[in-house]
Amino acid sequence: MSRIGKQPVLIPAGVDVTIEGQSIAVKGPKGTLALDVAEPIEVSRNDEGAVVVSRPNDERRNRSLHGLSRTLIANLVTGVTQGYTTKMEIFGVGYRVQAKGSNLEFALGYSHPVLIEAPEGITFAVETPTKFSVSGIDKQKVGQISAVIRRLRRPDPYKGKGIRYEGEQIRRKVGKTGK
């Protein structure tokens, strides 16, 4: 049995969970998130009020979905209570970011500034011209928009210039040796 799937998802005070068939909705202080659980997986509440995920049999697909479903539900609970934040930094001469309303405008060495619009539920915060953060309650959305921003100017393996996650180590390469 899935070790992750076996563990119940504890529901903190101030969080309301609604289960209707294969749909689960989690409402907390930061907002509301919903999830449709894959068909063979069953979601219910136990006596303590925690959410329990179970599977009908030990088929390979059901085993895979068991732990996944439990983790996705736990991510919903964490999102509506604490939220998710990805901190990012920019390296490179002349590379910078600035806030334009709720959007971000990047100067990344292109002939034009690059504008990234904030999707619904995502907020940007610029700390310095080279450091900013992406925040929201949906872990998948925060990770997706962070990856899109990083892809604007990937870190260069030779000089290390580009956009990277805070604390990310870039594997550096040695340049050509001169004659």
From TrEMBL:
Keywords: Ribonucleoprotein, Ribosomal protein, RNA-binding, rRNA-binding. One of its GO terms (biological process) is cytoplasmic translation. One of its GO terms (molecular function) is rRNA binding. Residues 11-83, 91-165 form the Large ribosomal subunit protein uL6 alpha-beta domain. Pfam families: Ribosomal_L6 (PF00347). It comes from the Bacteria. Coiled coil: none annotated. InterPro entries: Ribosomal_uL6-like, Ribosomal_uL6-like_a/b-dom_sf, Ribosomal_uL6_a/b-dom, Ribosomal_uL6_bac-type, Ribosomal_uL6_CS. GO terms for cellular component: cytosolic large ribosomal subunit. The keyword rRNA-binding applies. The keyword Ribosomal protein applies. PANTHER family: 60S/50S RIBOSOMAL PROTEIN L6/L9, LARGE RIBOSOMAL SUBUNIT PROTEIN UL6M. Part of the 50S ribosomal subunit. This protein binds to the 23S rRNA, and is important in its secondary structure. It is located near the subunit interface in the base of the L7/L12 stalk, and near the tRNA binding site of the peptidyltransferase center. Belongs to the universal ribosomal protein uL6 family. This is Large ribosomal subunit protein uL6. It comes from Mycolicibacterium llatzerense.
